[in-house]
Please model this.
Amino acid sequence: MGKVNKGAGAIADVIVAGAGPAGTNAALAAAASGLDVVLLDEQDAAGGQVWRKPLDGLNGLPETAELKAGNALRERLIASNVRFLPGRRIWSVSGQYRVDVIGADNPEFFEAPHLIAATGAHERVVPFEGWTLPGVIGLAGATTLIKSGGIVPGNRIVVAGSGPLLTAVAAGILKLGGTVAAVVDIAPLGAWLKALPALASVPSLLAQGAVWTLAIGRARVPVYRGHAVVRALGNGRLEQVVIGPVDAAGAPVAGSDAFTIDADCLCVGNGLVAGSDITRCLRAGHTYDRLRGGVVPVLDDAGRTSRAGLYACGDGYGIRGAAMAESAGVLAGLAAACDAGAISAEEMQRRAAPHRATFAARRRFSDAMAGMMALRPEQVRAIAPETVVCRCEDITRGAIDAAIAAGAKDLNQLKHFTRCGMGPCQARMCGDVVAELLAIGTGDRAALGALTMRPPLRPVPLEALLGDFSYSDIPIPEPAPL
Ligand SMILES: Cc1cc2nc3c(=O)[nH]c(=O)nc-3n(C[C@H](O)[C@H](O)[C@H](O)COP(=O)(O)OP(=O)(O)OC[C@H]3O[C@@H](n4cnc5c(N)ncnc54)[C@H](O)[C@@H]3O)c2cc1C
Model:
């Protein structure tokens, strides 16, 4: 008789989900307080998105500040007693608390009374005609190629969208010897000038941005501010990008001239969405925060959610950037240690103080950056009816509007009517834009909440869960009497 492969189990004091700047710091803080901590990540190394480790054996990549910061974090982790388990994809969270993962070979599960969710953000692309053509990739995804593999994603690249990743990606491509055909920034120059005093509140990051901007200028890359991608064209793959001017709200300027740029790669992204999958799955309290990237858990000032023993930190729970993710991670780790009785409340406050100070000092900078990346509703309104919005299920804007007209009033109804958000990405790519489309009619985005989150949080191969089941093991019920 076959059996379901539940995998091996392990018990700890604290489980930390995600080994980016937030999760790794949370794990280190909890472990330094004497707790047994398991840190899980689907990547092969700690560092998360921003401090991603280059693939093994890749030498000669530029030694950036981010690579150095990542290496320092990884060394601290090795020197600690945290049980770091890379290559583990979390697909289910349940109970109080059980975390199920798929590893290289087998499923495993971990149980602990304290769970810290630090799974980071994912990127937002506001759809346009042709965005599913091969050759069009995400802006944040491009950083992954650049950092992990030193890969230039095309021969002639247009970098488009919003926020600081535009300059980071364009400068990264140039540094690797690639060709950037244009940078297309939805924000007008005035918006950056307005943000400048806030950006100057963290001089090191402002200086880094200035270095990237100078590199783009030196390479004589045309920069189109107050512009956005209108459509991507090509026969089977990207050949041209059509761009046009937008107004301050991100809406195309009617009657203005669009123009075409030859390119074989378009890196495009419109900010980040907080990936609050775990806390949503566990039904903690949430709120909508446009500046912070969508639906985020309600947290106290140490990262405690509304559920006992469940904490959240980092960009997955509100877009703030790497430095604040580190501090938020330490605070959540200390809170778990305090709640577990490993340190006193006074000790927690003492150790938390410098991190609260960092958090406060970075707030202006992070608010300004988050503002540049926030979703622009007018850009969503401009999506054409024939444009695919949910690319997993091939659902167009027109089909979504038709479902709304037919009576779909909330996000789950819209999902039932159209299947949008039911594909492998589980709405990570389309969910925020679909909610915005629904809000055009209802007028209240915050009241829409979020799609109900259920496992699997990530695609799981059935084979990995089935163990030694075979067809003959499937119980066939007696046929019902006619
Ligand atoms: C694709 C991408 C690229 C980015 N690149 C940059 C950049 O170049 N520069 C910059 O300043 N900011 C970048 N950001 C923003 C970045 O999110 C933050 O500034 C910073 O990394 C936040 O740290 P964090 O620890 O909160 O999250 P992250 O660094 O994102 O770490 C989260 C970790 O959780 C893991 N994880 C998530 N889900 C699961 C799961 N189900 N199972 C197992 N592990 C999981 C991830 O593998 C990741 O290692 C990027 C964001 C994205 C989405």
Summary: The longest strand covers residues 227-233.
